[in-house]
Structure formats: C-alpha cells, structure tokens
Write a structure and sequence with these properties.
about 0% strand, 9 helices, rod-shaped, mainly alpha, about 75% helix
Length: about 150
C-alpha cells in the first residue's frame, strides 16, 4: 500500500511537470508562429516596395561576377553563350558603353560582343553600376583564378 502511494505521488508529480512543460512549449510555439507571421508580412512589404524594385539592377550584378570569374578561369571558347548571358543579365548598358568608350561607337561594333571578347579583359565597365576591375580582382582573388 505504501509503495502504491509513493508511486501515485511520483506519477502525479510527473504529470504536473509534463503539463507545465507542455504549457511552456505551447507558449513558445505560439510566440514562434507570431514572429513568423510578422517576418512574413515584413518580407512581403519589402518585396513589393518601390526601393526593392529600384535596386533590382544592383542585385542582378551579383550574378555577373560568377560569369566573369568563370570566363577568366576557363578562358571560354563560347562567345555566343557569353553574349547571351551578358545580354540577358540586365547589367549591360549599351548607351553607357558607347558613350564611355567612343572607339566602340567609331568602330561600329556591337558593344556586348566587344565586351565579351575584349572589354572585360581591358577593364571596361558594362554600365556605370558595374566596375569590372573591382569584380575581377575580388572574385578572382577568392577563386585563385587571376595571378597579377
């Protein structure tokens, strides 16, 4: 009888402890769900904001360094693929390239074609928002593909 009483007391204590822990975990879960909802709302607000849309070209620039590093490292023989990658990136500004490098305008060559074949290695910039020499230096130093 005494052992049954002791076991019953222990069992009740464990039950109370489990109920308390369940309450703590339920409260923590509710707080996490509320935080998730706040962050989701904040993210949606950012993604639909005017500033997010305005900074799209800057975010696109993060894709170009990988292409340039690959070109430097591999010295690719795929000029058409390079051309299409750069043209589709949204980073290249034909008017900027022609105005900044008058020899391109005078030579009557396609600015992207020139950049793919010569411009990047000459350190020419495809737009005012993209500094080829900085990108080549940073990306290639990290990847070990350029030895000065």
């Amino acid at each position: 009888e005494e052992q049954n009483q002791r076991l019953t007391t222990e069992l009740e204590a464990m039950h109370q402890s489990n109920e308390a822990r369940t309450g703590e975990l339920t409260a923590a879960l509710q707080a996490a769900e509320e935080q998730n909802q706040r962050l989701t709302t904040e993210l949606e607000s950012i993604l639909h904001s005017h500033s997010w849309k305005l900074t799209k070209p800057a975010r696109l620039l993060t894709k170009a360094p990988r292409h340039i590093a690959r070109k430097v490292r591999n010295r690719t023989k795929e000029p058409q693929k390079d051309y299409l990658t750069i043209k589709g990136s949204g980073v290249f500004d034909r008017a900027y390239y022609k105005n900044t490098y008058p020899d391109i305008l005078e030579a009557h060559v396609d600015p992207i074609h020139h950049y793919c074949n010569h411009g990047w290695s000459e350190g020419r910039n495809p737009s005012k928002y993209f500094d080829t020499s900085v990108v080549l230096h940073s990306v290639c130093c990290l990847n070990g593909c350029w030895r000065e």
